[in-house]
Structure formats: C-alpha cells, structure tokens
Amino acid sequence: MPHTAATTPGTPILRAEGVCKAFESGRQHTQVLDHLSLAIDPGELTLISGPSGCGKSTLLAVLSGLQKVDSGRVYALGSELGQLDLRALENFRLQHTGFVFQGFNLFPALTALEQVELPLTHMGLSRQEARERARHSLEEVGLSHRVKLRPSELSGGEKQRVAIARALAKEPELLFADEPTSALDAANGQTIIDILHTIARTHGTTVLCVSHDPRLVAHADRVLAMEDGRILSDRRPGAGAPKESSP
Amino acid sequence: MVALARKTLVYEWRRFLPAILAVGFAGLLQLLQLALVLGIFGATSVYITRSSADVWVGFPGTQSVGSGRSIDPNVESRVLMDPAVTRVEPYEWIDGDWRGAGNTGGVSVFVSGIDPSAQGLMFSKVLPPALRARLAEPDAVIVDRADIDKLGVKLDQTATINGHRVRVVGVGSGLRGLGGINVIASLDTAHRLDADDADNGPTYFVAKLRDPAQAEAVATRLRGDAAFGPYTTWSAANFARISVTYWLFDTGAGAGVLFLAGIVFLVGAVITSQTLVGAVQGSVREYATLNALGVGVGALRKVVLEQAFWVGALGLIGATVLGVALLVLARSQDVPVVLGPVAAITCITLVMGQATVSGMAAMRSMRRIDPATLLR
User: Fold this and answer.
1) What CA–CA distance (Å, rounded) separates A158 from A184?
2) Which residue among A90, A98, A163 sits closest to B296, beta carbon to beta carbon?
3) Could you give the ipTM of this predicted complex?
4) At A6, is the pLDDT very low, low, confident or very high (cuts 50, 70, 90)?
5) What is the DSSP string of B18-72?
C-alpha cells in the first residue's frame, strides 16, 4: 500500500520529534542529532544515506530503541520509546523489530536453522512453530539447502542472508538494517538489496536501512540524506518506478 | 529452546577446556585433601571404627578416645540391665612408655586392654580370633606391622612398657593410631602395665546391641543415671565423630584444611571465571545482536550460568575418575585415605559452588553488552 509524503500525525509507523543526541568525549562535545524530526510510513523501504559521522547510525539506534535521546521524542507503533524502561524496550524489540547489522554476528556453534530459531523460542513460540518459521525464512532468503551449515561453512553473503532470515522470521513490523551490504562483494550486495526490497513489498514490513551503497537508492521508496545530524533532503526516487526488484 | 550454552561449549571446547581443567583439578585437590585428612585423623578413632561395639560408656566430657578417665566398674551391670544390650565388655586405655630391644629410645605408646575372647568386641574387625587368642598369654601384646620397626622389636621379642616386660606375640594391620603407637594387650596384661594407682575401674565399657540401628536411642536412654558415679554414653558413630573433630581442631589441622580449601576454591574460581569472561567477550557481538532482537539480558545471563554449570559438571566427572583412581592407589600403598558420603557430597558442593561463583562473576561482564555498539 503506497503512501504519499503527506501524512497526518499518528499515521506514520515511526516518528521522531525534535530529537537531539550528543556525545561527550573528554572536552569534545559532538552534537550527533540536532533537533531532528522525521516520520516513516509503514510498508516502505526507507534509506538513510550520508557521509560517515553524519549521525545516521545514531538515528537508527534512536529510532529502534537501542539508545535513548537527550531531548525530543520517538514514537514507534504508537508507543513513546522514551517512556519505556529497559525491560519494556527489550520486549518491544522482541515483539516488533528485526535487526540486520553490518557484521553478521552469528553464533559459531549454531547451524543456520538454529541461528534463526534462537530468538523465536524466546518469543514464546513452540519448538515446532519456531522450526517451521525458521525454515520458511531461510527458504525465503534462498538458503533452504544450507540450513544445516554453521557460519564457518557459509560465504559472507550467505551469512548475511542468515542474519536477515533471523530478523525476518520474527515477522517484525519494523526491520532496521545498518550498512547491510558494506561487507559484501557486488553480487552478494545485490542479493541482499533484492531481499530487503522483497521483504518491504511482500510482508508489508517497514524497512529502515542505513547505507551509503548507491545501488540501494534505486530500490528505496524514499531516500533521506543526512549531514551534521540533520536531514538535508527527503526524496522518493521510485515515484512511479516499476515494482520489479531489478533496476 | 536452542541449546546455545551446550552447543557453544561443545563447538568451542578448546576455549572452555582451561575452565574445565581448573574446576576438575581444584575438585581433585579438595577431594584428596579431605580424604587424606579424614584418613589421618580417622586414625584417632580406630578404636571405635575397627570394633563392633554399638554403644560406648565413658567418663563425662571425654573429648577423644585417648583422653578417657576410669569409671565405676558397676556401670557394667547398669548397661547390661538394658534389654537392647546383648554384650558388655570393659576396655582399658593406658598411656605407656615403650622400651624396645633396639636403639629406639623411649616410644610413647597407647595400650589397649581388650577382652581376648573370640566374641570380644574391641578391634574385632582387624584382629582375627586366632590372633586375639594369643593375647590370653600373660604379658602378650600385638602391634601393627607398620609400627614394628619404630618399636625396635621383632615378632616374639620382648620389650618393656612402664617398666613391665611384654612380649610381641603377633602383628596386625589397621591398628595405627595418631600421636602414639597402639599396642593391644589383654585386660589382665593392661592392668599390670597400669602405672596409675588411681585407676580403679576400666576407662570404657563397650556394648553390643541386638539392633545396631538403635545405638543412638540406647545411648540416650543409658545416660544420666547418677547411682554409679559419673559416666556418660555415646553411640559408636557419634563418639568416633567427636574424637576426629577434637583432633582436627585441637591440632590446628582443621583450620589448615579450611584455609587450603579456601585458597584452592579461590584459585579455581578465578581461573574459571576468567575463562568464562573470555567466552562471553568472544561472543559479545552475538549476544548484543540477540539483545537487539529483544532477547533479555536475563536470558543471556542464563546461558553463561548454564555454561558454568556444564563446566562444573565436566570438571567434576574428571575429578571423580582421577580421584577414585588415586584413592585406590593410595589405599594399595597403605596411605590412610578415607572418603565417606558426607565428604564426597562436600566436594561436589564445593566444585559446583565454585562453578556457580565463577558463572556469576562472568555474568558481571555481560553488563558491557550494548546493542547500540553494533551500530557504528
């Protein structure tokens, strides 16, 4: 369901209002997010790009509830994240969010299937359900033939696909991805981009992706360019673009 | 639930091996130390543990077998009146000064005067009837084969105790005591050797019961009758425990054991916790990812605690196998080692306690898990 840029408050799935975040390092005071406001619509693949140090990863951390803001508010799925305590935040992330990081962060001892099953069992799913969901997710990222392999037996691209399956199997409303392609070669990077794109299209998952990979731009519903803790531009490159995943 | 803790332990066993070894060897040390101490100090109660008496009657307040005082001989009839009692016999304890034929100088000995008859209770577990019958000869004594060199005699040679002549008519085993050498004689011989004129009764009466399981109840029942002068009663197990405990703490060995146990515990715990901390640090990004996905820190801590448990359990298995082998070896070499169920459970508790403490220490390092650090 494509949305227009004009949204009334309450409609966006994710919203930041006047968010500030600064880091102190000795006498150095760095304003990473500077009164930033933003609304993300559901079911879209939004790309945040910008030079390194512009605050895009911090924005992702703040929007996903991994970090608290200094001032301002973040609303996700109607909850104000600043009002939630650590446990409630963990539970919020457990129920509603998925993450894909630049490093794949897979447990060396577990097979691909177990990596995906692990968070599911913590969600209260039965063993059977967790296994089925995990298999399905791995199938979706094209790894149904590699489910029994451990990370040491998988390529970089395959590892990232396992990581995506791990996030996807939770069936989250929000999927956060931080530089998901930067550790991968061109072909594998393209595969990951296609998968993220498909997730947003077929699952209605809101995908928020931080990346400076220009290939992602063509796949994004919306591209936010950041610099010095502010959003410089907000455009929709795919307005009227084909729905196919290939550019 | 995916068995993350166990699978990681199996897959990265090299990482966990130092902890397993630390726990195992610490457990082995605790076990051997305890077995040795109990073995050595158990010698202070051989009089009780190698005899088949169920109830002991002695002077009130006696803290160890060796520190008894004489009691009224008429107590015997009081004990015999109890319907649970089938046999009562006196037991005489005399401190002696042994002068052997060889150049051994004076040797401090503990003379045990016992009933040499075949039904005799004292030392019945280590003195076969034929051997104890030889004690019926006047001035006959039996000593442990391990002590005979120290006493400077050979079988059938004579020596003196407190100036009286005695003859070694036999050697036994399992008679070794602590603090002095045990010499077994008949009650008559022992009376002749007694240098203390104040002794006008035996040091103890020992009783056999119809049902040994009643020892505690009968001991309690026989206590507190003042008609025969001061005496008290113990079950054999209780008196043995009192004796061993007295020696453990009187000699300071108990404190030494506790001190050493503490050090071993601490060293083991430090190595184990450091290994576990290392394992946590090695997986910190994976743990942080799970936390980002909403798996609570509590659940992640459980993984570490479970790993600590398995490390403890594996260490324990290793310690048990090695420990049993070493104890068997020690027994075969006449090294006094004793390991009862209480001591074994103590060791198991120590090992698992050590693993738990290590796991909890390692859990502290999980505070560093912050999923925000995964976003650069």
Assistant:
1) 10
2) A90
3) 0.88
4) very low
5) HHHHHHHHHHHHHHHHHHHHHHHHHGGGHHHHTS--SEEEE-TT--SGGG-----
Do B88 and B205 meet the contact criterion of CB atoms below 8 Å apart?
yes
- CA-closest candidate to residue B100, choices B155, B138, B145, B146: B155
**Tokens 């693993």 found at:** B355
- Tell me the pLDDT of chain B averaged across its residues: 90
Residue A2, SS3 per DSSP: coil
Is the pLDDT confidence value at A245 over 50?
no
The yes-or-no verdict on residue B337 having pLDDT over 50 is yes
Q: What secondary structure does DSSP assign to B103-123, as a single string?
A: S--EEEEEEEEE--STT--TT
**Chain B contact set for A90 (CB, 8 A):** 291, 294-297
Topology classification of domain A14-244 = Rossmann fold (3.40.50)
Instruction: Name the CA radius of gyration of chain B, rounded.
Output: 28
Residue A26 identity:
G
* Chain A contact set for B288 (CB, 8 A): 105
Quote the tokens at residue B161.
């105790």
A105 touches chain B (CB under 8 A): yes
Tens-digit pLDDT profile for residues B255-305? 888 898 899 889 989 989 998 898 888 889 999 999 999 999 999 999 999
- A43-91 residue pLDDT tens: 999 999 998 888 999 999 999 999 999 999 999 999 999 999 999 999 9
Would you call B11 an interface residue with chain A, using a CB distance cutoff of 8 Å? yes
| Coarse DSSP helix, strand, coil percentages of chain B, rounded to the nearest 5 percent | 55, 15, 30
**What is the number of other CB atoms lying within 10 angstroms of the CB of residue B273?**
24
HSE (CB half, 13 Å, CA atoms) of B163? 3
- Nearest residue to B136 (alpha-carbon basis) of B152, B157, B120, B155: B120
Domain borders along chain A are: 14-244
A116 close contact with B: CB closer than 8 A: no
CB contact under 8 A, B294 and A109: no
- Tell how strand A45-49 and strand A222-227 pair up: parallel
Q: Which long-range contacts (CB under 8 A, 24 or more apart) does B235-238 make?
A: B235/B54, B235/B55, B235/B56, B236/B48, B236/B49, B236/B51, B236/B53, B236/B54, B236/B55, B236/B56
State residue A76 phi and psi, 5-degree precision: -130, 125
Are the beta carbons of B288 and B374 closer than 8 angstroms? yes
